[in-house]
Amino acid sequence: MKTIAVLPAGSVSDEAAKHLFRGEEVDWKHHRLISDVFLSTASGVSDYSIVPIENTIEGSVSLHMDWLVHEVDLPIQAEWVYPSIQNLIGRASELKDASGGIDYSLITKVVSHPVAIAQCYQFLRKHLPHAATEPVSSTAEGVRIAQNNPGAGLAAIGTMTAAANAGLDVIASAITDHDNNYTRFLLVGPAPYTARQSDSRKTSILVTLPEDYPGALHQVLSAFAWRKINLSRIESRPTKKKLGNYYFYIDIDMALDTVLLPSAIQEIEAIGCHVRILGSYPSFADYKKL
Ligand SMILES: O=C(O)C(=O)C[C@]1(C(=O)O)C=C[C@@H](O)C=C1
């Protein structure tokens, strides 16, 4: 049986994790903080950690990318995409207006993960412009806080699962700014993931450019371009060592053992770039086919 670290029960991560591992017996280790999710596998307690890395509306989750790159050395073993459906959660009985509808003015604060708050910006602007927002470590944690503070004017943004677990009501459902709101999750850990197969494989690398080398990024990209290797994502993040120094996180639509890719990487190293392989893994773009 695999031991797997993930954010708390009822979080979007937890739903996504249970989808990838459905039908399998898993010893779930739920952690309040994403740092503890990473450290559980880094310290050998868990076999894998599950990490949300990118979202349709909010883009990259920088904190999680930085943990992956700077704080741990855990290879990526799979990626999959899962819908993030957010709901406004609270106690309907505390929020009734005279005609039995919801009186949003009675909600004084909305608690949730900052990424979930950002996904619901238009809804909050329209219905709750007066309410404060408080970022917490996961959507499930926000629901837990709302559950533990009756009568405090609190509402949370989170999943239907979290609302049901906490015995709270869904005040408004599917409140994200766009319907097609998906999150890309990574499975990280020492052992390859083999339970499900995908025709599509990706390789993720981190490229640090040599200093004072004009056109270095152009040369990096051309090593892929002339071999007709498709890149699905390129993102710069600070190295944290010196202001203005960046590394490039690149997702390549190809397995590392495909003939062309090692030679492209060699070419990039030959111009003085440092390349770190973050993983070569199956990719599941359609959760319904997973
Ligand atoms: O808080 C959660 O439910 C999480 O799983 C975390 C997280 C994220 O970090 O992006 C994952 C997906 C959601 O869209 C919002 C938050």
Question: Any ligands, ions or cofactors bound here, and which?
Answer: prephenic acid
Radius of gyration (CA) equals: 21 Å
Shape: elongated
User: Mean pLDDT score, rounded?
Assistant: 95
| Proportion in helices | 25-40%
Tell me the number of helical segments per DSSP (H or I, 4 or more residues long). 9
Walk me through what this model shows.
By secondary structure, the protein is α/β, with parallel strands linked by helices. It has 3 domains: 2-84 and 181-188, Periplasmic binding protein-like II (D-Maltodextrin-Binding Protein, domain 2, 3-Layer(aba) Sandwich); 87-172, Periplasmic binding protein-like II (D-Maltodextrin-Binding Protein, domain 2), CATH 3.40.190; 201-282, ACT domain (Alpha-Beta Plaits, 2-Layer Sandwich). 27% of the residues lie in helices and 31% in strands. It contains 9 helices and 15 strands. The strands form 2 sheets. Strands 1, 2, 3, 4, 5, 11, 12, 13, 14 and 15 form a 10-stranded mixed sheet that branches. The longest helix is centred in the last third of the chain and has 11 residues, at 260-270. The chain starts with a strand and ends in a 6-residue tail after the last strand. The mean pLDDT is 95. The structure holds prephenic acid. Residues 7, 11-13, 52, 55, 61, 84, 113, 115-116, 138-140, 183 line the site of prephenic acid.
